[in-house]
Design goal:
With about 120 residues, the protein is mainly α. It has a domain at about 1-20 and about 35-100. The chain is built from five helices and no strands. The protein has helices at about 5-10, 10-20, 40-50, 65-80, 80-95. α2 (about 10-20) crosses α5 (about 80-95) and α3 (about 40-50) packs across α4. The chain is globular, with a radius of gyration of 18 Å. This is Transposase.
């Protein structure tokens, strides 16, 4: 694994991600084809796109899988609510370690329903 991949998706984050990613079918029913890009390669590319601000099409080839593969997996994982489950797992892990500081949280009106017209 490259230094860039280790920085974007450290081993500890990868272990948390493995808890929430849905299992995949590794054997293609029709046979043949290219090898499936690893989930870790794809996750690293997704983190790069999310943190760099580049578009999917601008994804550098250094990450391995092509941008359509990365985007397709991102869409599949989004539909499967992987990101929400990962967020919860990370919060649970940090909470168990006592590393959450809830004195610095923010709630906005989009997150909390205003009953009776917000009165």
């Amino acid at each position: 694994m490259t230094i860039l991949a280790e920085r974007l998706v450290p081993d500890e984050m990868w272990e948390l991600f493995r808890r929430v990613v849905p299992p995949t079918e590794l054997i293609r029913p029709q046979g043949g084809g290219r090898r499936r890009a690893s989930d870790r390669e794809v996750l690293t590319a997704i983190v790069f796109v999310a943190t760099s601000g580049c578009s999917w099409r601008q994804l550098p080839p250094v990450f391995g899988p092509a941008w359509p593969t990365v985007y397709r997996r991102f869409a599949q994982w989004s539909k499967a609510r992987v990101w929400a489950r990962l967020h919860r797992v990370i919060l649970d892990e940090l909470g168990a370690r006592g590393e959450l500081d809830w004195s610095r949280c923010a709630i906005d009106s989009v997150s909390v329903r205003a009953l009776k017209g917000g009165i």
